[in-house]
C-alpha cells in the first residue's frame, strides 16, 4: 500500500492504518528501536508506543515523508526509554558509545535552556549534515540518527571499521568547529 493511502486510513480513523504501517515499516522501525534499546521487550513496547503516537497525531498532522516521520517518532521514543532505563541502571552498548562520541561537540543541555535555542541548534546540525558530501552525510546519519554500530556502517558502505571511525571523528571535529563558530560551543 502506498504511504498516501496509509495516511488516508489514519484520517478516516480506520484501524487498518496501524496494520498497514506495521506491515510496510515495522521492520524498519524495529531496527531503529533495537539499535538504541537492544532489548526485545523494550523494542516491542517502543513500537507499540510509536503506533499509538502516530494514531494520535494523524490527523491533524499530514506527514510529507511518512517513513521519515515514523523514524523520528520511533527514534525519539527509544531515546526517551533509553534515558529512563539508564537512570535506573547504567547500561552499555552502541547508544552509550554514540552519546559519548557526540559529548564533546554538542553543548550541555544546561546551556541550551530555551526551546528556541534548541530548535536553532537542531537547524544548524541539519544544515551541517545537508552540506556534507553524500557519503559523509549518510555515514553521519547512520551513526547519529539511526545509532548503527561502526561494524554495521562499515559493512553497509563496504569500507573498513577503522575508516568509518576516522570519517566520524573528522565529521565530529567539523561539527564542533561549526558550533564554535555559531557560538554554541566554547573551545
Mean pLDDT level: 85
How many structurally independent domains?
A: 2
Examine the coordinates and then state which fold CATH places here, giving the name of the CATH topology of the largest domain: Rna Polymerase Sigma Factor, Chain: A
CATH superfamily annotation of the largest domain: RNA polymerase sigma factor, region 2, helix turn helix motif
The proportion of residues forming helix, as a percent range, comes to: over 70%
Low-confidence stretches are: 110-114
Order of helices and strands: HHHHHHHHH
CATH A-level architecture of the largest domain: Orthogonal Bundle
Tell me the fraction of residues in β-strands, as a range.
Answer: under 5%
Number of strands: 0
Which secondary-structure class do the elements indicate?
Answer: mainly alpha
Oligomerization state of this entry? single chain
Cα-atom Rg, whole angstroms?
A: 18 Å
Protein name: RNA polymerase sigma-70 factor, ECF subfamily
GO molecular function: DNA binding; sigma factor activity
Pfam family, one: Sigma70_r4_2
InterPro entries: RNA_pol_sigma-70-like, RNA_pol_sigma-70_dom, RNA_pol_sigma70_r2, RNA_pol_sigma70_r4_t2, RNA_pol_sigma_r2, RNA_pol_sigma_r3/r4-like, WH-like_DNA-bd_sf
Amino acid at each position: 500500500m502506498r504511504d498516501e493511502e496509509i495516511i488516508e486510513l489514519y484520517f478516516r480513523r480506520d484501524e487498518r492504518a496501524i496494520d498497514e504501517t506495521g506491515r510496510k515499516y515495522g521492520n524498519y522501525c524495529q531496527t531503529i528501536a533495537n539499535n538504541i534499546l537492544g532489548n526485545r521487550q523494550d523494542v516491542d513496547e517502543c513500537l507499540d508506543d510509536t503506533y499509538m503516537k502516530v494514531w494520535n497525531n494523524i490527523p491533524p498532522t499530514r506527514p510529507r515523508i511518512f517513513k521519515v516521520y515514523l523514524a523520528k517518532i520511533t527514534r525519539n521514543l527509544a531515546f526517551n526509554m533509553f534515558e529512563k532505563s539508564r537512570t535506573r541502571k547504567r547500561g552499555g552498548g552502541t547508544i552509550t558509545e554514540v552519546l559519548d562520541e557526540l559529548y564533546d561537540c554538542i553543548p550541555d543541555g544546561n546551556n541550551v535552556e530555551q526551546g528556541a535555542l534548541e530548535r536553532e541548534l537542531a537547524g544548524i546540525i541539519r544544515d551541517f549534515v545537508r552540506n556534507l558530501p553524500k557519503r559523509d552525510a549518510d555515514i553521519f546519519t547512520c551513526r547519529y540518527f539511526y545509532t548503527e554500530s561502526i561494524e554495521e556502517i562499515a559493512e553497509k558502505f563496504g569500507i573498513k571499521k577503522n575508516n568509518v571511525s576516522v570519517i566520524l571523528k573528522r565529521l565530529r571535529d567539523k561539527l564542533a568547529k561549526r558550533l564554535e563558530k555559531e557560538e554554541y560551543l566554547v573551545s
